[in-house]
Amino acid sequence: MSRAASRLAAALLLAQAALGAFAAPAGNVEAPAAQPGALPPGFKTGAEENPWRRFEIIALGAFPIVLFYVDWGFDLSRYASEGFDSDYAPWPFKGDNAVEPEEPELYLRIAVAAGLSLAFSGVDALIHRAKLRRELAPAPVPVELPAAAAPAPAAAGEDPAEPGGGPPDALGGKGGGAELDRGGEPD
Fold first, then answer.
1. pLDDT surpasses 60 at 45
2. Given pLDDT bands bounded at 50, 70 and 90, which one contains residue 72?
3. Which of 44, 144, 156, 184 is 20 to 30 Å from 62 by CA-CA measure?
4. Three-state SS across the chain?
């Protein structure tokens, strides 16, 4: 393809994208008002959702991303084990004379990525199940406490706000044995 043809193709692609981005709806058609957080009909959430379908979607969705990172990890490991030889450089730095992995190693990479994808979806399934159990658990019944008795009035000449300002205790001090702070011996 000549340089002029590639520029023309790029210009046409750009024009098509621009026209699609700035296109106005035909006539007086108004878009329906979307409610925040609302899903289109047919989407199931919470307890209605099929857990196996969610597991499958997450496993298949995670696989390409996990495969990319597994490939990069294997390439980096092989590069380090070969003494940082440029023929074994990892993906972004591979040259024309790079050594390609053998077929058994490719299958191993795919198997590792598939196992990690299943592990990710399994962890998600456990988290989702725990979340559903919390949501579906019956709400705790509030306990009604009996009405508290009114506090006793302070004795004449005593300040109820002062620590130990209650009635005298058996040891002759004020308020509930505050003097017994060292092993039960009075001060």
1. yes
2. very high
3. 44
4. CCHHHHHHHHHHHHHHHHHHHCCCCCCCCCCCCCCCCCCCCCCCCHHHCCHHHHHHHHHHHHHHHHHHHHHHHHHHHHHHHCCCCHHHCCHHHCCCCCCCCCHHHHHHHHHHHHHHHHHHHHHHHHHHHHHHHHHHCCCCCCCCCCCCCCCCCCCCCCCCCCCCCCCECCCCCECCCCCCCECCECC
In this structure, is residue 22 part of a structural domain? no
Any domain includes 177: no
Domain of residue 130: give its range. Answer: 61-136
Mean pLDDT of the chain: 75
Lowest mean pLDDT among 6-15, 46-55, 155-164: 155-164
36-44 mean pLDDT: 63
> Is residue 149 included in any domain, yes or no?
no
pLDDT value, residue 98: 87
- Whether 13 is covered by a domain: the verdict is no
